[in-house]
Design a protein that fits this description.
This protein has 420 residues and is α/β, with parallel strands linked by helices. 62% of the residues lie in helices and 10% in strands. It contains 14 helices and eight strands. It has helices spanning 3-11, 17-56, 63-119, 121-137, 143-155, 160-177, 182-198, 229-242, 259-270, 283-296, 314-330, 348-360, 379-387, 408-416; strands at residues 217-222, 247-252, 274-275, 301-306, 337-343, 365-369, 391-395, 403-405. It has an eight-stranded mixed β-sheet with strand order 3-2-4-1-5-6-7-8, with helices on both faces. α3 (63-119) crosses α14.
């Protein structure tokens, strides 16, 4: 099933009531069948008992023997009844556990969808409002309509290349579906945007990678100052710690004033140790000490905070290469993830940063922060389309729980739900 199929129910008013009613009817039929079977079994037992009673009382001198048989049968019936009660309780408990687990998963999914809708409210009002105003003004679907639409998409930080691809696809699809009304055209636009995102990646790659063989997972965080690296690391450390994982932090941002102290404070807050060194120390030496400790102590996750840098500063970018070489001396297959943290409110500048960082250190994914305060969430589509890089985490608020795994369906619903 494609991504668009997954979100149609939320976007276009299709719901899951039919499926739920079908499942409910099936469950009712199953319960009625079980009750009918129980009644039939009880009637058969009564017939057998009557027949046994008639056979057990032919003569008076056999009454004691009959009583003994009846007592034994009564005891057996009690044991059978008790066993049936145990089996019934066991079955009920299993059914309740399955229902509780299903309910918990559904509740978790609903909570995440609500988090996305709330976190993307500003983006939705900016992006969605522009499109709604655009549709309110158009009169005919002609070349001027598509030229204006392309310009609007560029202004919404979708990017020139992506906007051009979208407009071409929309032009063909609108003709194919003979879309003329506002609602038809809105649906086509959303559908093509989602399809463009979906065809440029695998949803499985949007999840954070981790080892299942007990090896330490090393996550290397990079990005410019102010993007939210340290805060993201602290929130992720809390999540992993709450999941029962052992976590170690490395404060390799040794040149920015207060950077080490900030990470140490996060470590105290979430009860996670932090490897530090003196100010102005070589960042690679901090990473070496942290990597060695993580391997020796068999820590589940080592998260490295690197110095913030401008992507056009060659000497600072070279420091990233040195850090990676240092990690590989002790753990040749690491880092597990190299994540670029981007401020979602910077729009197209975030795309430029991603391209430059990817030239220096091979990125495995992106973290978009501050989306709750941004109207430029359309950059996610541009990054995915032009770089084929998955977004793995998104910051949708100030609380630790507001760092969410990226979910394309929830993102699309949050971005478009007021548009259609």
């Amino acid at each position: 099933m494609g991504l668009f199929d997954k979100i149609k129910k939320s976007l276009f008013g299709e719901d899951e009531n039919t499926d739920k009613e079908t499942k409910k009817d099936e469950k009712t039929e199953e319960e009625n069948g079980e009750k009918a079977a129980d009644v039939e079994e009880a009637e058969q037992d009564e017939s057998i008992e009557e027949a046994e009673t008639a056979e057990e009382n032919p003569e008076d001198d056999s009454s004691n023997q009959s009583n003994d048989v009846e007592e034994e049968q009564s005891e057996q019936d009690k044991e059978d009844t008790a066993q049936e009660d145990v089996d019934s309780d066991s079955t009920d408990n299993e059914e309740n556990e399955v229902e509780d687990q299903t309910g918990s998963e559904e509740q978790q999914s609903e909570n995440q969808t609500e988090l996305y809708e709330k976190g993307l409210e500003k983006t939705n009002k900016g992006f969605g409002a522009r499109l709604n105003r655009f549709f309110a003004q158009f009169r005919t679907v002609d070349e001027d309509f598509f030229d204006d639409l392309e310009e609007l998409l560029i202004e919404s930080d979708v990017g020139y290349e992506t906007a051009e691809q979208l407009t071409d696809a929309l032009r063909d699809e609108a003709k194919l579906q003979k879309a003329k009304s506002r609602d038809d055209l809105k649906k086509v636009i959303v559908e093509k945007m989602v399809e463009l995102y979906d065809q440029n990646g695998d949803s499985e790659n949007e999840k954070l990678s981790h080892h299942d063989d007990g090896k330490t997972n090393i996550y290397l965080f990079v990005g410019v100052n102010g993007a939210g690296k340290t805060t993201t690391i602290g929130k992720l450390a809390k999540r992993l710690k709450d999941e029962g994982k052992s976590v170690l932090l490395a404060a390799a941002d040794t040149f920015r004033a207060g950077a080490v102290e900030q990470l140490v404070e996060w470590g105290k807050r979430v009860d996670v140790p932090v490897v530090t060194s003196k100010e102005q120390a070589d960042p690679a030496s901090v990473v070496y000490d942290a990597t060695k400790r993580a391997i020796d102590e068999q820590v589940d996750y080592l998260i490295v905070d690197t110095a913030g840098r401008l992507q056009n500063k060659k000497n600072l970018m070279n420091e990233l290469e040195k850090i990676e070489r240092t990690i590989k001396k002790l753990a040749p297959d690491e880092p597990t993830e190299t994540l670029l943290v981007l401020d979602g409110s910077t729009g197209q500048n975030a795309l430029l940063q991603a391209k430059d960082f990817d030239k220096t250190t091979k990125l495995t994914g992106l973290v978009l922060t501050k989306l709750d305060g941004s109207s430029k969430g359309g950059v996610v589509l541009a990054i995915r389309n032009e770089m084929k890089l998955p977004v793995k985490l998104v910051g949708l608020g100030e609380k630790s729980s507001d760092l969410a795994d990226f979910d394309a369906a929830d993102y699309a619903v949050g971005l478009f739900h007021d548009l259609v």
